[in-house]
Amino acid sequence: MPREATPSSLREAAAPSPREATAPASRREATPRRYLMCAPAHFKVTYSINPWMDPTKPVDLPLAQAQWEDLRDRYRALGHTVELLTPRPELPDMVFAANGATVVDGRVLGARFAYQERYAEAEAHRDWFRDHGFTEIHEPDHVNEGEGDFAVTSSYLLAGRGFRSSPLSHDEAQEFFGRPVIGLDLVDPRYYHLDTALCVLDEEGDEIMYYPGAFSPGSRSVLRRLFPDALIAEEADAAAFGLNSVSDGLHVLVPQGAAGLFDPLRARGFEPVPMDLSELLKGGGSVKCCTQELRSQGGTP
After folding, report:
1. Catalytic residue IDs
2. Cα distance between residue 45 and residue 55, in whole Å
3. Whose C-alpha in 59, 83, 250, 291 is 20 to 30 A from the C-alpha of 24?
């Protein structure tokens, strides 16, 4: 069974401030990554399935496309491989490719979406993986929205629940990947996926940053115990989607509105790379939401 985030199981520790929680800066190294992305060719907001979506606010599609292309091109300039998923006209949220699956050691845990509007995205992702040589693909029995609610470190699979993903998906993921799953309860609807409230900065070093206010008291206790040196984000940076970032171990691509994270990241030896995805934020997503990581056997691209 996955480990549960319950107040009775752990003693509460004093929450460190963002600056008190700074680990000694060491020489960081970027690791080449392989990402899956989907262009926002059909992106629009015609329904609302999270607090950020407002169908009365029009989307500037050329601007959304330009911002997405800037993110794609930045990954490539940093030496990463970007694979592309073909967008489908009937699926306006496909640009948020992180939600379509979770890939660890070349094994693919597919998604099962909570809302009907996104159901067909799961099949589109599974088709892509089959067409690109992935052979271990699991179609899930329980609702999970891919890397929206699963975050990978070398020791754990962190798993969000409370708004989208079912707690039953945690057992399913643990059984499929053979990795210990840590269940974390999300309690603020603005942070409806784990990737809006927590970011893995260094996968091998089990280093993360997160916003405590997004989690239940028990889950905050778990995070403090497992990650005592985590970078703690302030509310303003979390509200700017600053935790919806992507790190390659050195460069951290961060929504530009989360400027309060830049100096703490630099103090730890990371290089923040501000990105403007403001148009895609109208759909409730930013850097990480647009980026699914394809982790092969041994962690190599």
Report:
1. 193, 289
2. 5
3. 291
